[in-house]
Amino acid sequence: MPNKKSGAPLPPPLPEWFPRGVSLLRDPALNKGTAFSDRERDVLGLRGLLPPHVSSQDEQVHRVMENFRGLDSPLERYLMLEGLHDRNEELFFRVVTDHPDEIMPVIYTPTVGLACQEFGHIYRSPRGLYVSAEDRGRVAEVLRNWPNRDARIIVVTDGERILGLGDLGANGMGIPIGKLALYTACAGVHPRRCLPVMFDVGTNNETLLEDPLYLGLRRRRLSGDEYDALMAEFIEATQQVFPEIVVQFEDFANHNAFRLLETYRDRICCFNDDIQGTAAVALSGILSALRVTGGRISEQTFLFLGAGEAARGIADLLSAAVVADGLDEAAARQRCWMFDSRGLVVRSRGGLAEHKQAFAHEHEPVSNFREAVEALRPTAIIGVGAVPQAFTCDVIEAMAKFNHRPIIFALSNPTSMAECTAEQAYAHSEGRALFASGSPFDPVEFQGRRFVPRQGNNSYIFPGVGLGAVAVQATRITDRMFMTAARTLADTVLEEDLAQGSVFPALGRVREVSADIAFAVAEVAFSQGVAGIQRPDDLRGYIRQQMYDPHYFNFVE
Predict the structure, then answer these.
(1) Which residue range(s) make up the domain with 134?
(2) Could you tell me which residues are beta bridge partners of residue 338?
(3) Dist CA 87 CA 74 (whole Å)
(4) Which end of the chain is less crowded, N or C, counting CB atoms within 10 A of the terminal residue's CB?
(5) Which residues, other chains included, contact 51 with Cβ-Cβ below 8 Å and sequence gap of 6+?
């Protein structure tokens, strides 16, 4: 029967088991707080349990933001938002969606790094699942304890390489929680479909092992066959319990990250965001920058500070883009150079890790990064090694000496690990740098110009990739999907963005961008035969219908 006031259908009758009274107010998935209508308060046993004024959701958002802005400490803001998430899920995501520029740096980088470091000391309520070394033989049983069987995306970490902070063990749970909040806020993946997992195999961090408030296993990390066997059990259990799941590997150390991706990428629907997501966002930034410089990607030379999973992932995707622009694979790889803790990665160096060998080229050893810049004369330097302030004034000035518009990407997280600040990049390049960073920097006024640097943050990429994969029930996530996602993101950058020094779109457009990426990824899934559904007539409309919008539902007329 239609609603006489609006013509819309009435909500279905509430089942007998539906919570009422205080129980309803304590369920974050159903609680609307002061926004329950008078009729709902009568029917649901809420009369007298709430202040009499019925608030709109907009009024509630206003109240939250007033309190949020009144806090000076980023960690206090993080805890405030965590508390909101635990009380009222719809309002939490409405706040994040309406104010991404203010909220995302708190629920994710850079503040999430501090929250992870303090995790055992600020822990308040459970969120996500913990699969530990003590669960061997019963991992599937642990996963079945998760209340939402429609989970579609797992973000899992073992905590060994959290951002640029190193081994934080079980404290790393803040990363999957934050990533999945971004899946919902940025791409509309329903929170019921999101599952954060901490794969706790111990920690080698002595400080944590001695901390009386540390919440993880108090033991040294599993390694070798024991580690692999537990991971194999976990992966098998995910497929049994959640057969349509996408598994995102997050913040694993190099020695596990590459091996796990190669082991499982052709067996299940999975990806590693640090390798593939970072690569896509970096390639997108380069493509945007080239719209300013006017060069072709096959004409560029890239020098990475860092030679880990992020550097290798970016180098692989850049090489693929160079091949698509006309060079052969060997020549394309020659456009990418890496510099690690021992200096320039060159072929003559002994004992090179396997993931570095493809980008070890013929060159004399160089131990100083500025000297490497002088020798190679790159058009772009890309910092992904978590070496703070490594892009010194000498390095930036050298880049500006032989590039009219030097590309300088300081992508390490959190802010304390950034290779340089936005202000340093502009000041030491006479305002000519095309800059992007992993953590946010404020706009910079320099010589009468206002520059608006933007984050080269994976939140532009992984939410849309995940949404596209979930929407079409993809059986695999392919390299071509990330190439397509990078190009789609670059296409969303407006001329007015470029004019102010932004090589990425405004965060306020991230849901629109994610929808475009999801559509492009879904198209690739159908073209490569890895989609699990028949192609809808209106694929773009179908994907938009999948996107959760955090507005309240009226439980009664």
Answers:
(1) 106-268
(2) 304
(3) 20
(4) N
(5) 34
Domain match, 403 and 421 both: yes
Q: Please, how many CA atoms are within 13 Å of residue 35, restricted to the half-sphere of its CB?
A: 18
The owner of tokens 């999101």 is 194
Distance from the Cα of residue 550 to its chain's centroid: 20
Task: Tell me how far apart the alpha carbons of residues 433 and 379 are, in angstroms, rounded to a whole number.
Answer: 11
Q: At 7, is the pLDDT very low, low, confident or very high (cuts 50, 70, 90)?
A: very low
User: What gap in Å lies between CA 199 and CA 187, rounded to an integer?
Assistant: 25
Q: pLDDT confidence of 557, banded at 50, 70, 90?
A: confident
Domain boundary residue among 458, 488, 503? 458
pLDDT of residue 373: 98
What does each C-alpha distance from 470 to 153, 190, 194, 405 come to in angstroms? 8, 11, 11, 40
Q: What is the pLDDT of residue 15?
A: 87
The pLDDT, as a whole number, for residue 453 is 96
CATH code for position 300: 3.40.50.720
For the chain, report the end-to-end CA distance as a whole number of angstroms: 11
- Does residue 208 share a domain with residue 120? yes
Q: How far apart are CA 394 and CA 372, in angstroms?
A: 12
- Structure confidence at residue 16 as a pLDDT band (50, 70, 90): confident
Residues 134 and 181 in one domain: yes
Residues 233 and 146: their CA atoms lie apart, in Å, by 17
Average pLDDT for residues 329-354, to the nearest whole number? 95
Specify if 330 maps to a domain.
Answer: yes
Classify each residue of 361-392 as buried b or exposed e, where b means 16 or more C-beta atoms within 10 Å of its C-beta. Answer: beeeebeebbebbbebebbbbbbbbbbbebbe
Active site residues: 108, 179
290 and 238, same structural domain?
no
Each residue of 71-88: pLDDT tens digit? Answer: 999 999 999 999 999 999
- What token pair was written down for 267? 């067996």
End of a domain among 420, 443, 458? 458
Mean pLDDT for all residues in the chain: 95
Q: Is the peptide bond prior to 196 cis by the omega test (within 30 degrees of 0)?
A: no
Residue 289, domain member (yes or no): yes
Q: What is the pTM of this model?
A: 0.94
Angle between helices 462-471 and 174-187 (to 10 degrees): 70
CA distances from 189 to 147, 194, 246, 464, 547 (A): 17, 8, 12, 9, 6
**Amino acid at site 360:** A
Same domain (yes/no): 296, 231: no
